[in-house]
Design goal:
9 strands; alpha+beta; 4 helices; globular
């Protein structure tokens, strides 16, 4: 039986896609981990760092979104890829990957990019995120507090199940998280995460104490 040339091309293309997807996911991991490491370093230089560092001592986990993009005219959208690390007895766990996104409607114009670090202080909040499709501001007994960049003496933030540190600039005066959804990235989580980037991120977090 003869196989047509177009069928051969289609089979070759499918094979190429099958091999390219894991390679792309691995490349995306490395870039995301490097960006997350930079976000942690930026936190260290922020005036709010002292408060955030105190909260990290008892945090259950930390979720880092190094590049949250929010932009548009009339219709706005925000989203970004993030890294979640659980607190362990000896420091921090292997990174896991979760995407964050939301949509909104309003008189918006411009573009904003921000770094976010979510300090997760309760087992309930951590379980909600790890379960998948976790919606911020949707009730459920989980409190969310925004520790804005440059905040002074934000002692009340210690009571939040999740405390968010933000650093960003642009046309928006600030970011709101109500309605944002955090979901696991199945492609990035399909394989274990090892390598110097993951090690550097865990070391950088441990050095914040």
């Amino acid at each position: 039986m003869k196989t047509s040339f177009p069928k051969l091309l289609a089979a070759a293309a499918l094979t190429a896609i099958a091999f390219a997807a894991p390679a792309q996911a691995a490349s995306d991991k490395v870039e995301l981990l490097r960006d997350a490491n930079k976000a942690v370093s930026d936190l260290r230089r922020d005036p709010a760092f002292a408060t955030a560092r105190a909260m990290l001592d008892n945090a259950r986990a930390i979720y880092i979104v190094p590049k949250l993009i929010k932009g548009g005219f009339i219709f706005g959208a925000e989203g970004g890829e993030g890294v979640l690390l659980r607190r362990t007895g000896g420091g921090w766990s292997e990174p896991r990957f979760y995407d964050m996104g939301s949509a909104s409607f309003g008189l918006q114009a411009g573009l904003q990019q921000a770094e976010l670090i979510f300090i997760i202080n309760s087992d309930q909040a951590l379980a909600g995120i790890e379960k998948g499709n976790f919606k911020l501001g949707a009730g459920g007994g989980v409190t969310l507090v925004n520790l804005s960049s440059g905040a002074e003496g934000a002692t009340t933030s210690r009571g939040g199940d999740i405390v968010v540190w933000t650093s960003g600039s642009g046309a928006y005066a600030g970011l709101t998280f109500n309605g944002s959804v955090i979901t696991p990235d199945k492609d990035m989580n399909a394989t274990p995460t090892t390598g110097p980037e993951a090690t550097a991120l865990r070391r950088n977090l441990s050095s914040l104490k």
